[in-house]
Amino acid sequence: MEKIILTGDRPTGRLHLGHYVGSLRRRVILQQSGDYAEIFIMIADAQALTDNADNPGKIRESILEVATDYLAVGLDPEKTTILIQSQIPELFELTVYYMNLVTVSRLERNPTVKTEIKARAFDQSVPVGFFTYPISQAADITAFQATTVPVGEDQIPMLEQTREIVHKFNSVYGQTLVMPDILLPEKKLWARLPGTDGKAKMSKSLGNCIFLSDSAVEVKERVMSMYTDPDHIRVTDPGKIEGNVVFTYLDAFVEDSHFADFWPDYSNLDELKAHYRRGGLGDVKVKQFLNRVLDTELEPIRAERAKWENNINEIVEILHIGTKKAQKKAAETLQAVKEAMHIDYFGKSYLGGNC
Ligand code: TRP
Description:
The chain is mainly α. It has helices spanning about 15-35, 45-50, 55-75, 90-100, 105-110, 110-120, 130, 135-145, 155-175, 190, 215-225, 245-255, 255-260, 270-280, 285-310, 310-340; strands at about 5-10, 40-45, 80-85, 150, 180-185. The chain binds tryptophan.
């Protein structure tokens, strides 16, 4: 069977290094691998609205930001279909039929949704749309007949929910939907890059992000003020690697060639870590090195972004074409779903005939 990828992001702001390490970088590799017949990347604006109903302007603006970030990191519209969720009504029709296959108590057990409800302090006022977004996400995945869904660990419950819906649908109505598999990040560390302040997560409201669209000066400022080891006071003091954000970022980005290029005193990260642990190595030097490593990675992205920023209409056109192509696929799936349920009353399951 042909392999098809579907994944996506909620457009709630510009994308940052956490997104890059956790998913974007991998998507480009998957795109280049040639292993997939089709790749769909969804800008999940309808899902973003489930907890931003009062702020559609923010979601609207973020759609172009996210699309520009996609193109800047190397997603190629010739190979990857980029689409806007809300413009594909078939997804919402599928959602309605899937809702009948899921219980309220099953949704209540979804650990990611639980965590998000707490984080947003919804208490008793959880919007129904938010509560049910895992079902809508199952529609996203199945509509494009995805076999493979590359996402972070926080999305495991969504994939489980989707697989349950596929199983239930196929056993009630007959084999129709494709059973998707999750594709998790290769290394645990990459699943979630911490904020520059050492907090577990990069978040815009905490001001601890490095955005893909940040200038070289902004990145340097963030790196130089990064959280390290609070007990590493004098250069001669032994330093700790665990929980030291500078080293976590090096783990995610550094290659041996960076040492050859920028810091030939060491041949790899293990040697650098050993020196830091022993003592005699100051934070500033390590930060300067990290800054050069990040700059090597981010400069081409920045340059590419600058080109696209002068070409907004072309980006909109890419989104329009991608969305139309994706809609065609979703319409095929919806048709198959309706036929399986025998509710295609004016077509194959004609109401006037027997079925
Ligand atoms: N829930 C995902 C997130 O918060 C975004 C998303 C929406 C998604 N629909 C999807 C991811 C379908 C994978 C597949 O990042």
